[in-house]
């Protein structure tokens, strides 16, 4: 990538990530050799094909590397005539190291490569020996022009740092003419590559993550400054075909449904924790959720029921850093609390510089300008770009909102163009992740009603689901829960999505309904809207049953809620089935259970044998149904409440097959 390569330092750079250069561990000798040959062939075709233009940077290094790969390809081709049965372990290890090879490491590898143990032709050995000698003398060459490009790139950031806007003509000359980044797609590729470098960044590698953030912000600004909003090469249509693709970079929460590890969710809100804290019993909760629990007069731990000896909340730094890493790996937006008294070193190092902030503000200004005054097509492109820009970073979301995007996005929510509506509601969802933007959205007259309108009548399934997710995000603020529930059609639409939506749609709907249920004054609305019936039905749905049960538990605290739930025919059966499932799961995980049952079946009393046989049959039915237990959200086919077995999988599950022969009693 052009912008990433020109800031290479004289010292060797590390590989971008472990996953990107992971040596194969399960391949046979032949399979490993085939993989290496394919890789070397692809590299040569990519960089030395007739239709390939020369690189814009590191020209000498690139040509040197190509020549070395050509010799290595000769060596790999020669292996086809060698039998693998007599190849030593050392050769195989060297082949695996070759898989990880980067530039100057070629010399080190060839020094230890056991050529004498392989029956190769003399001409191949001569070429490899010549490569070994030349590699020892080779050094990474820094071309003067490459260094000038690197300095020029930093100078652009410096101008933003000092509050000045770089000259448009200089930006065009630098990126288009000198680096060859000459269309919208190439800019998108550069931005995605740089974002990957930020995710995989090591703290001691130059440039720092904050500088990389500056490069990303600069690239975004240039993309709109130089190419405006004409949606070159039909990119908008390509986006519509890409909606189901799972990229390597960050993916907004509305783009895919990912099962969150149970330990990362607050036991009270059941949502991913942003600010986990530890109470006196050692349990971890979301700070806002446990604080509200205490404010309501409770003096016990919600999870264990133990008395809280004090109300001090201790930040769980270790868990928060694990959540941050998991979110970055899965591309889920994650905003740490604004007033947190701690932060991970990686998060601190990735804070955007002043240059990045200024470039982002300039980009947001361009986007909002076209959102307000552009053609309908330009408005759609602007909405999509705001959506992408708001995927990550509190600062990005703040800049966009401060530039005045929210009222303009609200206007696009009612667009007859499905693409414009879907992009605008997803942009609204991403903006709402930042707490201050929640109030900005709710303060725009008619904005809440328009979001509910998309939930009810949206042109696409994705738009309706993202509208539900937006309501869930907004309902995280306690004061907005009643306002959302009172909005005409909101609860009814959420209940409908819970009954008939996709797996992701049901998840969005049930979490929103759960949040609304935490407000005591919403109970009557939940009853009259039919939400209770939808929640009871959801008790039997994999992936949402736990949240549905949590919402019902909140509703039955009110007398009218308890009465309404009691009238539902399937409520008792559904809750009983979940309890049976949870109890069976705990018993099934008991150590030495299989041997204990086996012993009772043959040595116990008649009554003990009968009970043991009954318990063994339950476990056998579970095993035959291929159930993996992962909490209350698991299907409970064995309880007689489902017509077909469910296959569930949760992070951290342990499958424990129990095989016991049951005698006829």
How would you describe the overall organization of this protein?
One of its GO terms (biological process) is protein ubiquitination. Pathway: Protein modification; protein ubiquitination. ARM repeats lie at residues 489-531. Residues 259-333 form the U-box domain. It catalyses: S-ubiquitinyl-[E2 ubiquitin-conjugating enzyme]-L-cysteine + [acceptor protein]-L-lysine = [E2 ubiquitin-conjugating enzyme]-L-cysteine + N(6)-ubiquitinyl-[acceptor protein]-L-lysine. This protein has 665 residues and is mainly α. The protein has 32 helices and three strands. Strands 2-1-3 form a three-stranded antiparallel beta sheet. A hairpin with a 5-residue loop joins β1 and β2. α9 (184-199) runs antiparallel to α10, α10 packs parallel to α15 (354-373) and α25 (503-517) packs parallel to α28 (545-555). The longest helix is centred in the N-terminal third of the chain and has 20 residues, at 29-48. The protein is globular and about 85 Å long. Residues 7-26, 232-257, 339-350 and 625-665 have low confidence and may be disordered.
Short description:
This protein is 60% helix and 1% strand. It has 32 helices and three strands.
